[in-house]
User: Which sequence fits this backbone?
């Protein structure tokens, strides 16, 4: 009788487990030497049978707290540890959930760093200790977490993770969809809750393997009622605010779309590699016009989402004008540029007297197929006394150049840009 393809199904109760391993396969994934001949044979079988080993950077993505990301991370870490991989817990936050804490089992834990901040004691991951321990794999929860000031060299945990990866250590981490920079404003509009902790999209996309831990809204609300997510005193307010059924449906869709986009991109890469003679739908190039005006961050995030779904490169273009010398404009523009980098967009600054024609010329020179603009805000007097707006003139030029144009509304109060963060998220 043949062996089942996924041995995890026998030991892992999570229905979302997507790891495919042959019987006896090793967790020695990144070229490190192990003593077991059986493990070596199993690895050879994996390669011969076309099964890819687990990547060096693995991220469990979820729609909200309570779907089981930390549980899955700990379970995978324990299974690797039992098979001989040098696994440690760099930082895990159980939030007082007993079932999650039980998953730690006998996996070694790197002691936390105790930090006093404004009269309060906090515990953070000890980056230096993890690097000194140099395990094969480190389990590091909550990728978007903001470190307490003075606890280490980096303000954000994702920056700690990048340093650990650069040191040759594999990382398994977790993140919720609302923390991704490109969807933060959409989450704020859907839920009415500001997301203070952010992680750049490119950090999550850098993961060798991204796995969605999914749960239906009904199941999540039942878990909440049974006390498996929040303590009893927080359950009523959570069910009527962030964990409302409609919010959970929307957040789940955002998570599913993000993972689906990543999967489709991998498929397109495979098709292009196998059939280079066929022109696949991968030629979209998107440009977004930016400035220092309020609401530009919302336009930029919207453009990033359009680019992701079109599998397109994104280029942010700023036309240098008379307002660029003012200190306030410089500060606001620096924040926009930082956001563009977090979203993985290229940045271009162009000096031109005519912004509309400069934008269209850039589009022609760089074979841009879609232009994203923020709707201009002009008073009635300006509309009556001045010539056509930049948006109107870009539309005229773009029609002649056969370029599609998206005009995005600028919101009065946009989601905050990625600047300083408080130690707590405010959502979980």
Assistant:
């Amino acid at each position: 009788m043949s062996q089942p393809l996924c041995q995890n199904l026998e030991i892992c109760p999570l229905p979302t487990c997507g790891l495919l391993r042959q019987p006896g396969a090793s967790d020695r994934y990144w070229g490190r030497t192990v003593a077991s001949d059986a493990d070596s044979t199993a690895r050879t079988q994996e390669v011969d049978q076309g099964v890819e080993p687990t990547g060096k950077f693995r991220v469990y993505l979820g729609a909200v707290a309570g779907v089981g990301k930390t549980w899955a991370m700990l379970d995978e870490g324990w299974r690797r540890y039992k098979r001989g991989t040098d696994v440690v817990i760099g930082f895990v936050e159980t939030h007082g959930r007993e079932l999650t804490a039980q998953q730690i089992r006998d996996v070694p834990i790197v002691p936390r760093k105790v930090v006093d901040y404004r009269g309060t004691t906090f515990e953070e991951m000890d980056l230096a200790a993890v690097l000194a321990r140099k395990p094969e794999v480190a389990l590091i929860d909550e990728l978007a977490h903001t470190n307490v000031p003075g606890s280490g060299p980096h303000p954000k945990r994702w920056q700690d993770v990048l340093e650990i990866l650069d040191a040759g250590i594999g990382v398994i981490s977790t993140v919720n969809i609302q923390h991704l920079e490109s969807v933060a404003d959409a989450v704020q509009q859907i839920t009415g809750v500001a997301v203070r902790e952010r992680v750049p999209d490119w950090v999550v996309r850098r993961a060798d393997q991204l796995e969605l831990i999914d749960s239906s809204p009904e199941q999540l609300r039942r878990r909440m009622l049974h006390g498996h997510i929040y303590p009893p005193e927080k359950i009523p307010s959570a069910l009527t605010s962030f964990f409302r059924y409609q919010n959970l449906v929307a957040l789940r869709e955002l998570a599913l779309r993000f993972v689906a986009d990543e999967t489709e991109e991998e498929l397109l890469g495979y098709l292009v590699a196998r059939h280079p003679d066929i022109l696949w739908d991968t030629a979209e190039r998107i440009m977004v016009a930016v400035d220092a005006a309020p609401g530009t961050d919302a336009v930029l995030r919207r453009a990033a989402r359009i680019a992701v779904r079109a599998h397109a490169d994104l280029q942010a273009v700023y036309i240098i004008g008379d307002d660029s010398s003012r200190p306030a404009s410089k500060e606001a523009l620096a924040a926009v540029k930082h956001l563009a980098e977090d979203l993985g967009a290229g940045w271009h600054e162009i000096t031109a007297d005519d912004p509309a024609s400069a934008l269209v010329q850039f589009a022609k020179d760089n074979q841009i197929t879609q232009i994203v603009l923020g709707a201009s805000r002009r008073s009635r007097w300006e509309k009556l006394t001045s010539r056509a707006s930049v948006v109107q003139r870009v539309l005229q030029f773009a029609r002649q150049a056969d370029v599609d144009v998206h005009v995005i509304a600028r919101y009065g109060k946009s989601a905050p840009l990625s600047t300083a963060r408080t130690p707590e998220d405010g959502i979980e």
The chain has two domains: 55-269, 283-408. The domain at 283-408 is CATH 3.40.50.620 (Rossmann fold).
